[in-house]
Write a structure and sequence with these properties.
524 residues; alpha+beta; Lysozyme; Membrane-bound Lytic Murein Transglycosylase D, Chain A; 4 domains; 4-stranded antiparallel sheet; two-stranded antiparallel sheet; 10 strands
Length: 524
Amino acid sequence: MRGFFVPLISAILVLGAPTARAAEGSKGAVAVRATRGDSLFPRGRKLADRITFWTAVFTRYSAEQVLIHDSAHLDKVYSVLDLGGVSDKEAAAIVGAEKKRIRAVLLHLDDRGGDLGGLRGAERTIAELFRDHHDPGKFRKAADRIRSQRGLRERFSEGVRVSRRYLPTMEATFRNAGLPAELTRIPLIESCFDLRAYSWKGAAGVWQFMPQTGRLHGLLVDRSVDERRDPLRASEAAARYLADAHAELGTWPLAITSYNHGIAGIANGVRAVGSADIERLIDQYEGRAFGFAGQNFYAEFLAALDIERNPERFFGAMAFEPQVPTDEVALRHAVAIGDAAEAAGLTREELVAHNPALSDRVVDGVVPLPRGYRLRVPEGRGGTFEREIVTVAVAQPPPAERVEAPAAVARAGSHRVRRGETLSTIAEKYGTSVAALKRLNGISNPHVVQAGEVVRIPRAGAGTAMASASATERRYIQHRVRRGQTLALIAKKYGTSVGALRQHNRIANPGQLRAGQLIKVPGS
């Protein structure tokens, strides 16, 4: 670990030359009209330091670096700690000790009563940071405003990369609602566009809707489907919320800030300071709940907007996720996910990738996709899907017992192997076991099953159906990822495979595993 002082904010926050020269109209970029945005999203002089700070946090500093800074004056950064290779517990202790040390320096400067002559080292560095402040109590006040901020470069760059798959459709949703397309960058600061993002308060998805707020703005949130996890559906709800916020508050800076602090909270702040100016609100509003996050939300948005307009300047060449056009089909009946995937000509995993709102209960085949759900399939396959699905027996568990075995189990007799299927995936689809399939079909080597081969399936009876959701849930345990752990290490710890962990947690990129993330580990 290294902790070192930075003499001036300019020493760490001037971004300098870009890591790669920005290409004219960079490939994959989503067009944003800067002139229109500049008028809709003003940035006054007092916001400059905040925007500079968050630009550096998003693009310059890694997750292993922690900035120790003044929470009110973001141009005052006392030190940057390098915490690579230490545990979370050790990191917390190091950050706490650094805050304590800086506080002692600030209090000592205050005790000197303005006599700053003969200062050296850390005391001189910190005193220089406050040269432009003339309040006699500036050092004592600053001692109570020490805050730490971890860098977000890796998460933010990955968010920008992933967002390009969804932004064109999201922008169209906002434009059709008469809203600025630039608002679709809010998920970069809400969640770094992490599709699996969950907060400790219960917010979910890239837009971080709470359950009740999501339902209020038209999202389906129940045990089968959680549309907060679908970036495109959640964008429809976000557009409705932001339209309401702008109609109530009158300006986009206030509406954007309300996404963090609530429409009523911002309205109270406007009344308290007697102005709708965002800078006055940030400087003067002392609402109990209007803390650091609310004060900085608009500046974070402006920083994210600047970065996303030209990400190559900050991150170098990037391989953006391509947009995947889809058709939507409203299900006329409840249907098992295996049947839906087959009708769409997809694997179960491919269907889930198009429909991230589906719950684990649906994905695992415990309950069917609900009637009326707008299922996405690849563009051009919607008509074929509708024709195919009507020929399939629909899964319709009794209303009072929605946790019975999937309908695929009840009608099973034989199955024609599709490309990419294994005995394991077939067993999962029909609620049986690999061993039962091997016995019934005389298969000695499960790895030689070929596409086109017909496999007999044990017909399910009362003893083979899954009796309850709790029985299914006992097939998993939860593991909280620690710093430095990889899927390979976790798989070894629990005696499973990386492939199984990726399948059960829908992990597309194992390199994006995060400390603190909860993952399901299959097992008894």
